[in-house]
Amino acid sequence: MPNSAKQHNAGDLRFLKRLNRSAILEMVRRTPGMTRADIATEARLTKATVGTGVQSLLERGWLEEGELKKSSGGRPGRALYLNDGYYALIGAEVGVHGLRMVACSLNGHILDQHHEHLPPTTPEVTAQHLAECLQRLLAGPDVAERHCLGLGVAVPGPIAPGQTVLRLAPNLGWRDVPFLDLLRQHLPTLEGIWLMDNEAKAAAFGELYFRTGEIPDSLLYVSAGTGIGSGLVEGNPWPVVTRGLQGLAGEIGHTILQPGGLYCHCGNRGCAETLVSGWTLRAALGIAEEDDLYEALQPRLQDDDVQHTLKRAGQALGTLLLNLHHTQNPSEIVLGGSLTRLGPAFLEPALDYFDASQNRLLGISQRIPLRIIDDSTFVAARGAAAQVLAHAIHDPDAFGTKLSPSAAEVSS
Amino acid sequence: MPNSAKQHNAGDLRFLKRLNRSAILEMVRRTPGMTRADIATEARLTKATVGTGVQSLLERGWLEEGELKKSSGGRPGRALYLNDGYYALIGAEVGVHGLRMVACSLNGHILDQHHEHLPPTTPEVTAQHLAECLQRLLAGPDVAERHCLGLGVAVPGPIAPGQTVLRLAPNLGWRDVPFLDLLRQHLPTLEGIWLMDNEAKAAAFGELYFRTGEIPDSLLYVSAGTGIGSGLVEGNPWPVVTRGLQGLAGEIGHTILQPGGLYCHCGNRGCAETLVSGWTLRAALGIAEEDDLYEALQPRLQDDDVQHTLKRAGQALGTLLLNLHHTQNPSEIVLGGSLTRLGPAFLEPALDYFDASQNRLLGISQRIPLRIIDDSTFVAARGAAAQVLAHAIHDPDAFGTKLSPSAAEVSS
DNA sequence: TGCATTTCATTATTTCAATGAACTAATGAT
DNA sequence: ATCATTAGTTCATTGAAATAATGAAATGCA
């Protein structure tokens, strides 16, 4: 990791150069269309330094020049943009119901995506299957000609910081699986950055990092699916995912909302997941694991008992959101996962409770922006891809590839 | 703030020098007795660079040389230590029951302390009172001859990041008070760094930063007093307090533990504070605000109803700890505040619950270190002082004062 | 005791990235 | 057309760290 704190404790001139290059790149990424002069002002660097830095980033395919900006009595500056056509980022998610994978451009645009249904099976079979699908994705028309920066994999369970072992994935039946290593054995041709992260954390990162416009100081992604998890991303200008000592940060499905309540599969009583989660709803509404929760529920949505069950679950979700508000106080919340498809009967009680409660303490009217993702199929996979970019951007000279003369011709 | 990210986005040679100086200083602070050679290895700097850096830090009174280290066949290195006799850090806390203040050395040793009883009153009167006490503290025998780096103030309420306004202090009856500015008007002579932070956050910072031995990656301080608050410190080697958008991070007293439960003073129902806090216990046990909770309870500790009440409250605290474990997963937890004095009848149920529950999810036996502070009178004030040091250490040349020849003589 | 060896620390000297000042380039205003 | 203004480049200079050589102080062994 280029950011592994202790390394950056001190630095030499090369470190400084790297720092400034990545600062320039990140600034243009966040504010497309900046000119060299804008960068110099913002970064407090001289025009000369910015000039050479930008030159290098252009040569390596990170940036491209755009139109001349409107001038107000002086030479107009040249707009700079991320070169969205040169690199590719690969992201994948191992989910309970299958494998999802995407190829993204630097701006987070999805070039190609694939959803492969696969019921829970062994890590070995899963890795092999995923590797095959990724091979096809990499060979696809929009991807093959790009330079691939690396692969990020999202998994439904906690990962301790700095590790590549999935500690536990209850919904897959896995425990202590070195999934990234397994996958690499089946995909030795894919070079570059290899990362693995928890699904909600990857999603959180992607939602913050690929945001257009102002990037918030922090973002909380709440993933409500078979289980409930969250991911918090913090830090400006270099956002970082919060993991905690054992990777348990964000295991909010196992916070207690009802002391002495029902037993959870984790062994504790009254966990949030016993009140709101895919598996509790299935149990409460008598829906088999093989069936799609949304489709099975569709014809019964108007039933009183269904309405009541969804309302209770929604309220529990609202309580969970309030607790996170008063624990982590994120700048923004994004709600995703398969449960968001259950619609207003589930979501409205959650939002109503959260909206009514969030400002009581301070007695103000500021609302934390909350966004609901209707279809979060590829959110985690795309987030994992975002993490690859965030990694590469810390050392653009090392991870970037020098443009060949022909490629340079094309992009200029 | 020297760390206010956006500024450090990019840097020049002066920035690099500053970075390396503070890295050296921080390394010696964490690992007393390092030699120049040790630093060079650890920081991946050359001996030459470390040599000049150390020289400058010696001249400014940050470091001092110690004994020669034992050699194993070669020239022995010279041990380096923080110069614990040159600078002073001032910390203060505005609490519900009075003002607390400390003067610390760089290692966090308390040089002088003062506890001034003062019932809640206006910000103006409080500021004036505090200023007078601080004047006396600054003139004290162990403090006056030192160079003062600045003042940190801890207050019982949320502060939005980057602000110096106390948004709300329910237990003082304050709202939107620019307390630091008020205080400065009464204490114009005190130069250097001025900081204000929430009480639990300051305490958390101090407990992590002034720790001897290995410094954990993160630390959660839970302050259980009249209200319940927490502070999370994260980051290695530069720890940072988590605040959230509005400074509400750590307002765990207002997380819901009992949906539909009793009304809290914040207006929501079933807040943790309705189950465990000084004010709930007072209400439940019929103890007046003027009386000291601990002393009033002492003769009744064996009563069944008291035991039962304390047990219920303790269990709620345990639940709260578990929820924080599954939300933030800190490397270490420190429990402080006036309620820790209530003893085993209160604490054991909390610890028992937390110990029994914390590992169920992962199915392992690793225990999160949890320390209880019996007397946390000066913890927040000392933590505020720690924050002053953390600030100054980012630019030792700027904040340090060049040793006068006479002073240099004394310290060498 | 003498001497090679090892490690610590300091001292020139070199390297390298950012700076600053001078310069060219391109536009709008007069 | 001229000028003021802003954008971007060129190049000598500056400054901080690397490199390499030297001195210093211990250990260990003949």
How would you characterize this protein structure?
The structure is a homodimer of 412-residue chains. With 412 residues, chain A is of the alpha/beta class. In chain A, helix 1 (13-30) crosses helix 3 (47-59), helix 4 (123-139) crosses helix 6 (179-186) and helix 7 (199-209) packs across helix 12 (379-392). Chain A folds into 3 domains: 9-83, Arc Repressor Mutant, subunit A (Orthogonal Bundle); 87-205 and 378-392, 2-Layer Sandwich (Nucleotidyltransferase, domain 5); 213-372, Nucleotidyltransferase, domain 5 (2-Layer Sandwich), CATH 3.30.420. A 5-stranded mixed β-sheet of chain A has the order 5-4-3-6-9, sandwiched between helices. Chain A has a 5-stranded mixed β-sheet with strand order 12-11-10-13-14, covered by helices on one side. The first copy, chain A, has a two-stranded antiparallel ribbon with strand order 1-2. In chain A, 37% of the residues lie in helices and 19% in strands. The longest helix of chain A is centred in the last third of the chain and has 22 residues, at 304-325. Chains A and B meet through helix 1 and helix 10 of A and helix 1 and helix 10 of B.
